[in-house]
Structures are given as structure tokens and as C-alpha cells.
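Record type: monomer structure entry
Structure origin: computed from sequence
Chain ID: A
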Amino acid sequence: MGDLVNLRQARKRKQRDEKARKADQNRLLHGRTRGERTLTEHERQNADKQHDGHKREKPTSGEEDQSPEVGENNVVSIFASDDPSDSEVK
């Protein structure tokens, strides 16, 4: 004779198995823990900060160039005058 099967328990077992199978599929699709997501986000932010720190920005048309005067020999004069007419090398 066959084994007795409690239909209520069989139905619940089937639902649990279905839920576990669906959870496995979702883990494959979205499968990163919160710690992994935050770690990746922090690494991305740090890389962006480092990259932005190495950028050279050109002054816009409204801003004046704040660089010191450069002579003919590409020598920066630390005693540069503010008067543009006095730019001759002596």
C-alpha cells in the first residue's frame, strides 16, 4: 500500500520550494549584498574625486588668468609688476 500524504503539508512544501526557487533567481539577477553595493559606491566616489582632482580647468571668459607673467625664456617672474605696459625684460 502507498504512503499516506497530508495534502496540506504537501501544498505548503510546494509553496516553500517555489519561493526558494524564485529567491534563487532573484539572487542571480540582483545578487549583491548591501555591503558590496556600498563598497562599490565608495570606490566609485573616491575614483571620481581623484579624477576630478587631476583635471586642469581653463579659465572662463569672465575670469582673469591668475597665472604670473612669463618672460621670453619661459621663466616666471616673481617680481612681476601689475602694469602691463611695463612687461619689458631689463
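Annotation 1: Helices lie at 7-30, 34-53.
Annotation 2: The chain has a mean pLDDT of 79.
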